[in-house]
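Lab notebook, bench 4. Continuing the backlog of folding jobs that were queued last week. Each job is logged with the same field layout so the records can be merged later without manual cleanup. Today's entry covers Peptidase M15C domain-containing protein, a 153-residue chain. Filled in by technician R.K.

JOB TYPE: sequence-to-structure
TARGET: Peptidase M15C domain-containing protein
LENGTH: 153
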Amino acid sequence: METSKRLMAPVRVAPALGPIERKIQAARLVQAMPSLGAAYAHALARWEGDPVLRLLGLPLITECYRSVARQDALYAQGRTKPGKIVTYKRGGESKHNWQPCSALDVAFQLPNGEMSWSGLLLSKFARLMKAADARVHWGGDWPGFKDRPHFEV
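JOB STATUS: finished
OUTPUT FIELD FOLLOWS
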């Protein structure tokens, strides 16, 4: 008796965080001002509740509070250190440098486990963030330098 093999499309599985990653995300979220943290939590819940968006990737806070020294190191990038310019703010000038923090940066964990800073994914998440709180500003809307991972109040 011959068995036939059917080709099936690979099943896409939405990325999920393990317990350590969940703790890291929670620790970053509590660094944010309450209004920004609430907007992020609301936008994240809407993203995770949409079966199509969930399959695209999982939004993650990559950074909220940032020390003045770290800010200065990022400012040096593309100027006196190798790499692309990622900020125009020196230490003490960024909304990341204060606690509670009025800025956070987001990236996406893709289903294959890679991290992405896709402008398309970030723009979709930005719509949810701005709908959650009209005070949220997205760095992708700025004239000139586009800081797409950046959200602030």
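OBSERVATION: The chain has a mean pLDDT of 94.
SIGNED: R.K.
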